[in-house]
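Board notes, transcribed. Complex of a protein with oxa(dethia)-CoA.
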Amino acid sequence: MYSRIAGTGRCLPDRILTNAELEQMVETSDEWIRSRTGIERRHIAAEGETTSDLALRAALQAIEAAGITPADLDLIVTGTTTPDQVFPNIACLLQDRLGVHGTPAIALEAACSGFMYGLSVADKFMRAGEARYALVIGAETLSRITDWTSRDTCVLFGDGAGAVVLEASETPGILATHLGADGHYKDLLYVPTGPSRRAVTPSRDDGFIHMRGNEVFKVAVRTLGGVAEEVLAKAGVDKTEVDWLVPHQANIRIIQATAKRLDIPMERVVLTVQDHGNTSAASVPMALDVAVRDGRIQRGQLLLLEAFGGGLTWGSALVRY
Ligand code: UT7
């Protein structure tokens, strides 16, 4: 038994924050942000709007696109680093809001790789015959952990959610997945505090994203090509067969470097970073949904999905759509 993508969905909050607005908030410029990152705007959750609010809207779209109802789901897997609350986990919150009862509700935290981790875990459940329909979500409200006075990070991040419904299938949709991590790099990208570690002398920085951007950039470029090659080798597929690269949307320069290493022209890369910045776990499923709904991605095509993020963590998947 295999899994295949039966439906996709996404949700961006209504409020758009432009580069021009950021110029009024910190010492930056539209030109710097565009040329260094490719980002033009990002979406910010409204006051009181939570990660599960965004996740629910993305999930309902994916469920509708798959032609099923929430009651058909028998597994929910979420990737987020900005859950609504410590517990119950966000997969449980989502399960309740979908009116589903009894399915396993697995919440993963692998920063920007959260969706790729979730996809791989759900695929393994389905290959083991333990689920017929699985909902996999990447959702974030990174605006809540962004220091809006720091130009090093605040120009980069945004909020959103992306979802897929996987369906058990006798022919493979997900051909292979590859996951990895290297905790040695834990100090390159992190939020300092959590429930079990509070600073003795709390500072306003404690709950914010800290990033050594240039170092993360270099490791990302070094790692991502290899992550893609691993999954191609696992599936026994040559890179020339890939129809669409659907990468993590952190920085256009990282995406261009990865595409170049794989000899994939930018016309065959799904690019959404300009519209919503880095939305961490949400970025790959949102990009996938954009290209499915605008008709670029067609049934039968071969997709290479990949992500990279805090941990450091990474993941890739080769998918026959
Ligand atoms: O989601 C997965 C993990 N995250 C990523 O993949 C992000 C990886 N990193 C990056 O995307 C890039 O490193 C950044 C976009 C964060 C930064 O770009 P960079 O080309 O690596 O710039 P830099 O950090 O080397 O900084 C270059 C200059 C510095 O000034 P000096 O020292 O050359 O005078 C910075 O102070 O740009 C300055 N700078 C800015 N200037 C205007 C940094 N942030 C800004 C800003 N506006 N927002």
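Residues 28, 32, 36-37, 112, 151-152, 155, 189, 213-214, 216-217, 220, 250-251, 254, 278, 308-309 surround oxa(dethia)-CoA (CB under 6 Å). The radius of gyration is 18 Å.
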